[in-house]
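User: Design a sequence. Structure:
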C-alpha cells in the first residue's frame, strides 16, 4: 500500500499548499481519502483524473471535499467522459459540493455510496471499516486493510476511544492534529492536539504516526515534538508530495 500526500493544511491552504487529500494505491487501484481545497492540482501531478478509481470523503467541510467538484469536471467534461466515479460519504455530507453545477449538472460523473459506520465493505482490493468520530459535523474515520497491512485515517476528530479502536495495531495512523498542545475550549470536543494524537497512537499500538490538518500557523516542529513525547514510534508531519510505502 502506497500513500501520497496531496495536501494536509487544516481549514484553508497556506501559500503553495493544499488542504487534506491522500492518494492510496495498491495493485494498480487508486483511491482518494478526502480532496480539500487545492488538492486536485497536486493529484494531477501524479495521476490523470480519469485514472482515479474511488473517493472516500470523511465529512462535508470544504477543506476535505471542495476539490471533488473539479475532479468530477475533469472526468466528465471531456470528449470521452470517464466512467462514473464511486464516491463514499456519510448521507448528506456532499449535498453542497455536488450541487455546485446545478441540478443534474454532474450527475453522470459519480455514483454516491452512503457510508454505514460499523458495516465493513470492499473498495477495490481494500477492506474498509468506518467509524464515527466526534467533530462539528458528522465525520467518518476509515481503516483500509489489504494483505495484512492497515492504514487508519481520522478525518477531523476530537479525542476519542474510537480513534484508538480505528488505529489498533495499524501500520500507519494519519491523525488530525490541529494544535500542538492545548485545544481551545470551543473546539476541545471536536479537534485534537499533536500531543493527544501521540497518546492515542500509543494506546492503539500503531507502528507509525503521521500528523495532519495542522492549521497553517501551527508550528510543525513543535507539533512533532509534542507527539513524540507521547508516542515512542516514528512520527512525521504530512507534507505535499510525501510518499509512504507500507508493508516494505
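Assistant: Done.
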Amino acid at each position: 500500500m502506497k500513500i501520497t500526500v496531496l495536501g494536509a493544511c487544516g481549514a484553508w491552504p497556506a501559500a503553495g499548499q493544499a488542504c487534506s487529500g491522500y492518494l492510496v494505491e495498491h495493485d494498480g487501484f487508486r483511491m482518494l481519502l478526502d480532496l480539500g481545497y487545492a488538492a486536485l492540482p497536486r493529484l494531477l501531478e501524479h495521476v490523470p483524473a480519469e485514472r482515479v478509481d474511488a473517493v472516500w470523503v470523511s465529512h462535508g467541510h470544504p477543506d476535505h471535499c471542495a476539490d471533488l467538484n473539479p475532479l468530477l469536471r475533469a472526468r466528465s467534461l471531456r470528449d470521452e467522459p470517464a466512467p462514473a466515479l464511486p464516491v463514499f460519504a456519510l448521507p448528506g455530507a456532499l449535498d453542497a459540493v455536488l450541487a455546485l453545477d446545478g441540478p443534474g449538472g454532474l450527475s453522470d460523473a459519480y455514483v454516491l455510496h452512503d457510508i454505514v459506520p460499523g458495516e465493513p465493505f470492499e473498495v477495490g482490493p481494500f477492506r474498509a471499516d468506518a467509524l464515527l468520530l466526534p467533530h462539528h459535523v458528522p465525520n467518518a474515520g476509515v481503516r483500509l486493510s489489504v494483505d495484512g497491512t492497515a492504514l487508519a485515517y481520522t478525518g477531523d476528530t476530537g479525542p476519542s476511544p474510537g480513534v484508538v479502536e480505528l488505529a489498533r495495531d495499524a501500520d500507519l495512523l494519519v491523525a488530525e492534529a490541529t494544535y500542538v498542545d492545548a485545544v481551545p475550549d470551543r473546539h476541545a470536543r471536536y479537534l485534537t492536539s499533536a500531543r493527544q494524537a501521540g497518546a492515542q497512537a500509543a494506546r492503539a499500538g500503531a507502528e507509525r504516526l503521521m500528523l495532519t490538518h495542522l492549521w497553517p500557523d501551527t508550528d510543525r516542529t513543535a507539533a512533532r515534538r509534542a507527539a513524540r513525547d507521547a508516542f515512542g514510534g516514528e512520527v512525521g508531519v504530512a507534507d505535499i508530495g510525501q510518499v509512504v510505502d507500507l508493508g516494505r
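The longest strand covers residues 126-133. The mean pLDDT is 97.
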